[in-house]
Each structure stands twice: as structure tokens, then as C-alpha cells.
């Protein structure tokens, strides 16, 4: 039996680190990147006796923003619970989470291909620390302990590896646009746990969970591998074990980590030291009113630009570029904005330019640059050269017109001046044959004449204008 006879069903849990200034329950730095181990830790994070947690209000607001970004219901009353388990990087012996009354209720994420994935819920919780393993010992770093998280739990609405990747990419976009996380996958700001099962009927099969995937490619490849592994077992009459598995980018395989045949008893209990979160609807409405434009809104707005999907999605991966393109569309309309969209997707997002600060060029400057091309003041090649200079910090105070003058790229459009140069070229002995060829209808020869005019004008002549003037003179 082939794998195509089986239906793949996937649900994804995603941990999102919130980018608050301080941790969820302690007033210490929440950004431990490049910090020494155990440098961002308070007595609360160490779980010293008598230390009580204090809820970070900013984390609550960011959780609400995340929920709104996913079209979720925001629960006005939510509570924290203690999830008990022992691990060396969890000093308290329990994690403060939301098992029974999460802050974020049901919702739905719409994907670029028109499909959608329902959200079961999302809850707030604190992160654990980090263990670094050596040959015969391990070291504990508690910098991450207490980092505010939301765990987003999808419904099992995903049925292919490509859709799993698309869901993770869109979820990442939503969290970035909502400004609730830095979204650095390498630093673990978002981590994906993929639950996958296979069945020939609508009844779900036994699932395996692939833990801690931190790239979209890993999500897609891990699902592809796991589907093949499970269907091969089923074809041989064997059972799929309910277990947690790890993924290796090096081997391209999943491997068992621990069995989940028996559910672990976390001995949940209400968290006595943190009061319930009680929200007013007016507060939620205020947070919603301050939400920025989200990816779906940009997709709808950019519909008038007739971009292909890959070009549009590439731009949407960078919120500042989506914002700039939207502003250019407002200022310059459909006449000027498509050119800017092409510059973004075709030039600015080339791999060698991804380290640039995309916020440097303003919407006014981008509109001006596009307008200069529209008015034939710049060639498309010249405009691209100026575009790259606009993303150099040393040129932040210079307009596109100023840069064009400095770079000697302004095109000559004065027909009187151009005709004088053209007359000089057409009377030159070395151009006589080409001129005769054009008079006789051999239009290929016009390229040579245009080149000679460009040479005499030192590249300032507008090639299109020169082409038309030569045709008129030789017709």
C-alpha cells in the first residue's frame, strides 16, 4: 500500500517568547542574548524561600495582542496553575502555566493559499532554564527561566508538510506584525512541536510528537520523514508508538526520545500566589484599536498591484517593507507603487542585501525615486543604483534627486539638446551605413546609433527618447 492511501493529520503547538523588557514574574532583564550564564536571574527565578511572583502587565497586553492577531476570543477572566515536574532547569519544581482557564480562546488563522487552521486556545506560561550537556556533567543556565511565553495550540486541521510549513510561516508573520516577539528562530523565540498521525479513515491514528523544531524547513522535512516512517510501519502491520521524537537536520530523521503511552501526572493545582487576570472589555478594545495592519490586510490592499504571490509574500516577510510599500501606494498610487514592489522583491531582498537596515529609505524618498523613472529623469538601471545608495547610512539626509546628481545619473530629456547630438552622430562617416540600414527598414541597426548617442552624451541621454527621435529623423 502506498503512502498516498493514508491521510496525514497534523496539529502544532508553538511556544512564543514575548519580547517584554522584564520577565513574566520578576523584574529582571528579559533579553539574555550574549549575556553570561545566570546573569539575568532574580531570587524569584532561583525560587528562594519567601520569594513571591508579581505578574508583568506588559506580558498580559502582548498576550492579548497575539490573540487578536489570530482572530481569537480574549477571555476576560483567566487563571494560572502550577504544573509539577522535576527537572534541573526548573528550580521551583513546578511551572506556572494556564491549564484550565487560558487567556486566549478559540480562533482561526487564514493562510495565503486560502485555507485556514483553527486555534484551540493559547495560554501564558513561564519558560524553564537551559541545560548544556558535557561528557559526564551538565551545567544549568537560568537566564531563560521565567521568560514569558504563550503556547499556541492548533486544532488538527493540517494535512500536508507544505501546509504545516505555511501555517508556521504565517503564525510567525502574525506574531512579528503584532509586535509581541522578536521572532528570531535561531535564538528560540518561537519553537514548534508537531503532532502527526496517519490513518486510512477519518479516525485519527496514533500520534507522535516531534519536539522543538526551530525552522520552517525543519518543520516541513520532519513531517515528510515522519509520515513515511509511520506509513511504512502500518504497511508492515506494526503499530505506531505514541512517543516524543527529536529531529536531526544532519541525518534528516526523527529518533525516539521518550514514550507517551502513559500520560504524565503533572498534579495541576491553582497557583495560589498569582491572582486571576480579570480584564475589562474596554481594555481589550483599546488594545485592539492600537493593533497595526496585519498581513491579511496588506494582502488585500496590495491586490491592486497585480503582484504574483511569491513576490507579495517575500515582501510581507519584512513588516517595514510592507509598511513602506503601503505608504508609497497611498502617496503615488498604482502608477508608482508596482515599481517599488519590484525593487523590494527583486533587488533589496537579494541575499547579499539582507543585512541592510530596511527602515532607512522613507516612503517619500521611494515615491520620489519611482516618479523620477516615470518622468524619464532616470533609467531603470540608474534608479536601482540610487536605491542601493538610499540604504547606506551615510546617505540618510540625501534625496534621490541629490544622489542622482552626485552620481551623474540624471537623464537628458531636452529634445533640442538631444537632436543636436543625434544630428552629429548621423552625419559622422562611421555611422553612415547604420543610418542607411535604418532608412531601408533594418531597425536592428538603430541600436548602434543609440549607443553612439549615449556615448557622446556620457550616458545622460534617455535611450527611449533617443530611439524615437532617430526613427523620426530617418523615416
Overview of this structure, please?
This protein has 475 residues and is of the alpha+beta class. The chain has 3 domains: 3-282, no CATH class; 293-406, no CATH class; 415-474, Arc Repressor Mutant, subunit A (Orthogonal Bundle). It has 15 helices and 15 strands. The protein has helices at 43-46, 57-69, 161-177, 216-235, 281-289, 295-301, 309-316, 319-348, 363-374, 380-390, 400-406, 415-426, 432-439, 446-456, 463-474; strands spanning 7-17, 77-78, 81-84, 94-97, 107-110, 116-126, 130-133, 138-141, 148-154, 190-199, 208-213, 243-248, 253-259, 269-270, 277-278. The strands form 4 sheets. It has an 8-stranded mixed β-sheet. Strands 4-3-14 form a 3-stranded antiparallel β-sheet, with no helix packed on it. Strands 2-15 form a two-stranded antiparallel sheet. Strand 12 (243-248) and strand 13 (253-259) form a beta hairpin. Helix 12 (415-426) packs across helix 15 (463-474). The chain is elongated and about 95 Å long.
Quickly list its features.
alpha+beta; 3-stranded antiparallel beta sheet; Arc Repressor Mutant, subunit A; 18% strand; elongated; 3 domains; 15 strands; 475 residues
Q: Which stretches of 5+ consecutive residues score pLDDT under 50?
A: none
> What separation lies between the terminal Cα atoms?
72 Å
Number of helical segments?
A: 15
Domain tally? 3
- Strand numbers in spatial order across the main sheet: 5-6-9-1-10-11-12-13
Average pLDDT score: 92
Amino acid at each position: 500500500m502506498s503512502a498516498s492511501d493514508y491521510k496525514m493529520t497534523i496539529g502544532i503547538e508553538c511556544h512564543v517568547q514575548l519580547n517584554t523588557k522584564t520577565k513574566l514574574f520578576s523584574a529582571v532583564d528579559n533579553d539574555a542574548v550574549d549575556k553570561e550564564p545566570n546573569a539575568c536571574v532574580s531570587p524569584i527565578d532561583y525560587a528562594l524561600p519567601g520569594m513571591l511572583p508579581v505578574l508583568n502587565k506588559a506580558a498580559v497586553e502582548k498576550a492579548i495582542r497575539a490573540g487578536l492577531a489570530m482572530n481569537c476570543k480574549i477571555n476576560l477572566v483567566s487563571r494560572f496553575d502550577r504544573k509539577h515536574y522535576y527537572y534541573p532547569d526548573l528550580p521551583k519544581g513546578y511551572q506556572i502555566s494556564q491549564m484550565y482557564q487560558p487567556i486566549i480562546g478559540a480562533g482561526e488563522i487564514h493562510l495565503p493559499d486560502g485555507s485556514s487552521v483553527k486555534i484551540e486556545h493559547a495560554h501564558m506560561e513561564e519558560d524553564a532554564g537551559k541545560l548544556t550537556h558535557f561528557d559526564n556533567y551538565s551545567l544549568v543556565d537560568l537566564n531563560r527561566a521565567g521568560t514569558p511565553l504563550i503556547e499556541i495550540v492548533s486544532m488538527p486541521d493540517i494535512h500536508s508538510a507544505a501546509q504545516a510549513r505555511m501555517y508556521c510561516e504565517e503564525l510567525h508573520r502574525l506574531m512579528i506584525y503584532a509586535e509581541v516577539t522578536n521572532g528570531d528562530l535561531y535564538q528560540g523565540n518561537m519553537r514548534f512541536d508537531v503532532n502527526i498521525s496517519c490513518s486510512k479513515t477519518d479516525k485519527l491514528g496514533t500520534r507522535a510528537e516531534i519536539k522543538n523544531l526551530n525552522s520552517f524547513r525543519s518543520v516541513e522535512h520532519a513531517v515528510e520523514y515522519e509520515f513515511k516512517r509511520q506509513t511504512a510501519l502500518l504497511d508492515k502491520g506494526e503499530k505506531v508508538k505514541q512517543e516524543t521524537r527529536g529531529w536531526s537536520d544532519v541525518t534528516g530523521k526523527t529518533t525516539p526520545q521518550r514514550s507517551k503511552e502513559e500520560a504524565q501526572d503533572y498534579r495541576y493545582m491553582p497557583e495560589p500566589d498569582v491572582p486571576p487576570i480579570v480584564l475589562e472589555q474596554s481594555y481589550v478594545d483599546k488594545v485592539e484599536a492600537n493593533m497595526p495592519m496585519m498581513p491579511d490586510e496588506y494582502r488585500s490592499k496590495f491586490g491592486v498591484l497585480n503582484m504574483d504571490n511569491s513576490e507579495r509574500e517575500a515582501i510581507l516577510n519584512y513588516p517595514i517593507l510592507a509598511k513602506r510599500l503601503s505608504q508609497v501606494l497611498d502617496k503615488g498610487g498604482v502608477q508608482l507603487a508596482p515599481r517599488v514592489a519590484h525593487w523590494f522583491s527583486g533587488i533589496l531582498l537579494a541575499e547579499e542585501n539582507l543585512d541592510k537596515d530596511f527602515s532607512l529609505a522613507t516612503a517619500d524618498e521611494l515615491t520620489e525615486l519611482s516618479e523620477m523613472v516615470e518622468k524619464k529623469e532616470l533609467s531603470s538601471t540608474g534608479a536601482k543604483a540610487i536605491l542601493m545608495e538610499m540604504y547606506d547610512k551615510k546617505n540618510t539626509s540625501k534625496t534621490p534627486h541629490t544622489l542622482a546628481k552626485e552620481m551623474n545619473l540624471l537623464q537628458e530629456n531636452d529634445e533640442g539638446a538631444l537632436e543636436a547630438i543625434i544630428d552629429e552622430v548621423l552625419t559622422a562617416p562611421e555611422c553612415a551605413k547604420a543610418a542607411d540600414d535604418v532608412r531601408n527598414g533594418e531597425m536592428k541597426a538603430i541600436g548602434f546609433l543609440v549607443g553612439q548617442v549615449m556615448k557622446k552624451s556620457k550616458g545622460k541621454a534617455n535611450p527611449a527618447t533617443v530611439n524615437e527621435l532617430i526613427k523620426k529623423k530617418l523615416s
